[in-house]
Design goal:
four-stranded antiparallel sheet; alpha+beta; 7 helices
Length: 202
């Protein structure tokens, strides 16, 4: 026997709203678009430190450079928003040393949610291998974490983010970055830097 349970009008509206929320939540990860939803957040809140030639802490969020920050060793870990250093920084409480944007309470809830959903969806960049008749743009090499030895025989553990002329941009475990002269590295470490740079060549 079926019961025809009638909801009051207001409760019907709430029920429909809740149902819609559950329905949409299953596809929300697919709805976030990097160029339309995420990049504007970076441009309005992060440009001063991380765009237009600025890369504080070695992090550049420009559309043509952000790929360097995406990877298991990067600030953006694909499909793992909660493991991404970017999410840690934008959700820090006011006054935190590493909070993004600096000297603020972080981004608004809707902005944080959009960035999280984009990362959890794999941090895809618009048009990546999707445009008919065009070959996908070459990807920047993943940051290379390892041991680096200088000509004096001293060894440090750091992540090679990129090569800038005759400098290797190394990120220390504490997040600090240093442009280290490649010529002051040992022959073995120079070879690793060279191979890294060649993998980035078009």
């Amino acid at each position: 026997m079926f019961f025809d349970f009638q909801l009051p009008p207001l409760m019907k509206v709430k029920a429909v709203t809740v149902s819609a929320a559950f329905f949409l939540s299953g596809s929300s990860l697919l709805a976030v678009d990097f160029k339309k939803d995420v990049l504007p957040i970076f441009e309005s809140s992060c440009a001063k430190c991380h765009m237009g030639g600025n890369a504080k802490g070695g992090l550049a969020l420009d559309a043509d450079k952000i790929m360097e920050a995406i990877g298991e060793a990067g600030s953006i870990v694909p499909a793992k928003a909660e493991s991404s250093d970017l999410i840690r920084r934008i959700t820090m409480k006011d006054g935190g040393e590493d909070v993004m944007p600096p000297k603020s309470k972080g981004l608004g809830n809707s902005d944080v949610r959009a960035i999280k959903e984009w990362i959890d969806a794999g941090a895809p960049l618009e048009g990546e291998g999707m445009v008919a008749g065009k070959a996908p743009a070459p990807k920047a090499p993943q940051p290379l974490r390892g041991d680096w030895t200088n000509v004096q025989g001293k060894t440090i553990t750091a992540t090679l983010l990129r090569v800038e002329g005759d400098k290797a941009l190394l990120q220390m475990p504490n997040g600090a970055t240093y442009p280290y002269p490649i010529g002051q590295l040992s022959a073995e470490s120079q070879a690793k830097v060279k191979a890294f740079a060649e993998s980035a060549a078009p």
